[in-house]
Amino acid sequence: MWYEISSVKEVNGFMEKINFFHDSCIKELKYSSGAYVNDKYEMYPVNDRRILNVVFQCQREGNGMFEMEFQGLRYLLWMKCIHVKYLTLLCLYKMV
Questions:
Q1: Checking DSSP bridges between strand 43-44 and strand 24-32, what pairing results, if any?
Q2: Which of 21, 8, 10 minimizes the C-alpha distance to 65?
Q3: Interatomic CA distance for residues 30 and 52, integer angstroms
Q4: Which end of the chain is less congested by CB atoms within 10 angstroms, N or C?
Q5: pLDDT of 96
């Protein structure tokens, strides 16, 4: 079941429901650009979808796994912080 989060109140409710990502990890990432090659080997090189799905797992019963979908991304920045062993920063920039 998908829920759209579009207000600060909805973000706060979601964060409380998942315990602010405490004891959570990213299990999977899937990016769909929209570009493809058809059966005639003709390329459609336009990135008109730009959808990122992120699957998280956490150490608790009830909400042990959840997925977030981000649509209309402009770019994605993925960095591992060198001073913190287990922290990964995921920055998503949505087109306006």
A1: unpaired
A2: 21
A3: 6
A4: N
A5: 43
